[in-house]
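Exercise 7b. Backbone tokens:
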């Protein structure tokens, strides 16, 4: 913009902080443009600078004052950003490569538990409130491979997952209905798989006893 503008042109800037990052640059740009015969307007501050503007000391004073405040606000914002990043790193929700993580350590633990229970990628992403591509990033990072559902979706959980489900339910301190909601299944479906788990465990115990005889 600075190299393209010609004498007689008018440049309209929304606010002072949009034109320069510090007071020195701001004054330098204003002087450069006005010396080339270019009119400069700041919409928000209602200030106008043009060739011969040296005769208006009030506008120059306002420009310097407002520019100084804009620079001060920018410095404060950067300082708060650094403090926020430091706090996020202490809580373990900020990546080492500088990108803010969308899942906390608690969320990642829950992701692992649900993945172990056979949740699909789309369902797991909806539960965690993230995009499937973001979920893929976490799955790869944690070394988790989701199991594919069988064709027809006749069974939500495999035998091994059913036994894991029962053990997790036994450690659950809330109500059965609440546990079913965490799995995204009706309570009746949960009851069916809990009974199946009992049958599988009983069968496994019988086989173990038979092998010892």
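Sequence design result:
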């Amino acid at each position: 913009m600075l190299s393209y503008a010609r004498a007689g042109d008018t440049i309209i800037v929304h606010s002072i902080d949009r034109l320069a990052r510090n007071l020195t640059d701001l004054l330098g740009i204003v002087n450069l443009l006005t010396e080339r015969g270019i009119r400069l307007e700041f919409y928000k501050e209602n200030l106008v600078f043009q060739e011969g503007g040296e005769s208006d000391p009030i506008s120059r004073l306002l420009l310097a004052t407002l520019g100084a405040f804009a620079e001060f606000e920018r410095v404060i914002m950067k300082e708060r950003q650094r403090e926020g990043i430091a706090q996020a790193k202490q809580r373990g929700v900020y990546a080492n490569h500088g990108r803010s993580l969308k899942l906390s350590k608690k969320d990642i633990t829950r992701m692992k538990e649900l993945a172990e229970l056979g949740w699909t990628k789309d369902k797991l992403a909806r539960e965690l409130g993230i995009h499937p591509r973001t979920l893929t990033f976490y799955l790869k990072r944690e070394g988790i491979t989701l199991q594919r559902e069988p064709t027809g979706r006749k069974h939500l959980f495999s035998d091994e997952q059913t036994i894991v489900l029962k053990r997790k339910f036994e450690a659950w301190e809330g109500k059965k209905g609440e546990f079913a909601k965490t799995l995204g299944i009706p309570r009746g479906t949960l009851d069916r798989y809990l009974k199946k788990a009992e049958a599988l465990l009983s069968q496994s115990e019988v086989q173990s006893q038979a092998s010892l005889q």
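Instructor comment: The chain has a mean pLDDT of 79. The radius of gyration is 32 Å.
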